[in-house]
Amino acid sequence: MNLKPDSKVLVQGITEPLGSIHAARMKAGGTNVVAGVSPGHGSEKLHDIPVFDLIEQALSAVGQVDVSVIFSAPFEACDCAFEAIAAGIRQIIIITEGVPPLDMVRLVRKAEATETLIVGPGTPGIIIPGKLLLGTHPADFYTKGPVGLLGRSGTLTYEIALELTNAGLGQSIALGIGGDAIVGSSFPQWLQILDEDDHTEVIVLVGEIGGFSEEAAAKYISEAIDKPVIAYVAGRHAPKGKRLGHAGNLIAAQISAGNPDKVSPSGADPETAQSKISAFKQAKIPVADRPSQIPELVKKALKHGVKKK
Question: How far, in Å, CA of 282 to CA of 276, rounded?
């Protein structure tokens, strides 16, 4: 990851309703949005941002770009990402949710081959408070500080950021890996990035029901992460048997339901929060019972510093 306050940012799908709204907010927050791409809208300007039909045309006008943020329709999002990779952009954030899984399989393979970092789909993006906004995070919920905030959900991540901010605990970075069935980067990848980040002293991981991402994260934390980690799992009171959550959670739950031999590493039903909570507790990671408890646990972690293996 190579994100700086002056990183050049391109917005694909800038004329989409969400693209237009959040491109304006990103620019107003100081993000260096240099161009937008939206086929059929070349030569236009939106929020004083030049719009092009193709990335190639945009780069000819503004030079090489560091990050692309994609708001295009689900069936177009991966094609947009392939176009960005072909143009040499190696950091791509896909805000769009509901991207076809087979499209994402192709994209993940291409990203691995080209060493491209993909965040999303179905992500609120990344925010480095006071420096850079890439996505839909409400910037006024965040403030500078030592807490790295990592989650799957968008709005829940915002809520926890506000809890931390109100408690006087700022954030070094906050991001969502995405809630779709297949995402471009994982909890372990970002845990390693935050563990190596000089501005992050403690990590807050926000999980939710469905899939096995949190169990994998718990195992990775216990084996490879030196910085203290606090966890919270949403959905512990969700009614059993109900299909709730992101597209990825729904698919994971359906796969599990049709595969009775597939159980979570902790032995609990993967459709419940208990599997994730058990995995974190087995890894000796403090788990908050509710979002309002997170600041208290973070303060304890900051007081004790780097964990001992």
Answer: 10
